[in-house]
Amino acid sequence: MLGRLAAALGLVVVLAVGCGSPPAPCEACDGGIDAGAVVDGGTGGGVPDAGVDAGPHDAGSEDAGLPDAGPEDAGLPDAGLPDAGADAGADAGVDAGLPAGTCGAPIPLAFAGDVATAMGSTTGAAANVSEQSCLTDGPERVYTFTLAAARSVTVEVTPTGGYRPTVSLHGAPCATATRDCVMAPPSGPARLELAQLAAGTWFVVVDGDAGSSGSFTLTVTLGAPLATGRGESCADPYRTALSGSTLGNQMTGDTLVGLGNDAVSDTCDGVGADRVYRLNLTAQRRVTLSLTASSSTPLYRPVLYVQAGACSASGDLACDAAPAAGGAATLTFPALAPGTYYIWLDTFGMTTGAYTFTYTLAP
């Protein structure tokens, strides 16, 4: 028994001697289990590493170097452009301080085939665009689309709230370059039809009459460009069949619904949708003109006026307005001199509708 105890004590002595100072060789004798702060020079005095890193590698780049403190944790991916750029970029300027739906940040229309539909509201929107020819002085929403080639375009704004919308089409600059505009009738949608719209970027401004606002559905439909000569503007007047060398009557029926407001009579109102005809006289003639509202649109009150020499937004040679809705406007020129004349078929007080237009040339 005493022999075994002595032998055991002897083993303890050997271990004590073998593991004395200096401590560096102890990495070999204790298997690296607790190498201590002197050997590994690391972060936890040996205990946290439990000998796994075993020495000089513990002070290297694996624990204190670039992977922990470098670009991966503190660099561009977390604090740089990839995060900040996404919020200030493709969301139509919402994060950059520009409200969506203005000339500065118009809302792009998404087309499915040739039709784009968007639902919106002008309530609470800015009122930066004012188009006096359509009495658009309410808050507005601005949309945009781009044509790669000339197309016919129909723009329709249907109110879903209790307000009277107006719609106008603008080129650049958005706030001032008005191409056409129209106001909705007392009930129903505002509808603008353009036979041929050139390639380029265009802006649709949904506004309101007399400062009104509300919710709406906007629909833009594209089609093949239509033949010119539909009388939509001075640049595209309707050609009359009669001239100074031809006598007789000519009657035509059509509608002003969907057309824009391109001219205003100096004395007879005419602030609604209109159509312009061109008449070329090669000799002096007696000319009688009559514009009568169709029975299908009894609220339409016609306005008729004539310009001489040049087609413009104003400058009447003569004008007449129907005395009441559903009536007729009539002009007679006993001796109209040779020349070019522009005859405007217009509307009183923003009413619109179908019509019958009759013009007679006599010696």
Write up what this structure looks like.
- The structure is a single chain.
- With 363 residues, the protein is mainly beta.
- Among the domains are: 107-223, Jelly Rolls (Sandwich); 238-362, Jelly Rolls (Sandwich), CATH 2.60.120.380.
- The protein is built from eight helices and 19 strands.
- The chain has helices at 2-18, 26-29, 36-40, 61-64, 66-69, 71-74, 76-79, 81-88, and strands spanning 107-108, 111-112, 115-121, 141-147, 151-159, 165-170, 178-183, 190-197, 200-208, 215-223, 238-239, 248-255, 275-281, 285-293, 302-308, 318-321, 328-336, 339-347, 354-362.
- The strands form four sheets. The chain has a five-stranded mixed sheet with strand order 1-4-9-6-7, with no helix packed on it. A five-stranded antiparallel sheet has the order 2-3-10-5-8, with no helix packed on it.
- The relative contact order is 0.11.
- Residues 1-97 have low confidence and may be disordered.
The unreliable regions are: 1-97
For the CA atoms, what is the radius of gyration?
41 Å
Main-sheet strand order equals: 1-4-9-6-7
- Beta strand count: 19
- Tell me the span between the first and last alpha carbons: 155 Å
User: What name does CATH use for the topology of the domain at 238-362?
Assistant: Jelly Rolls
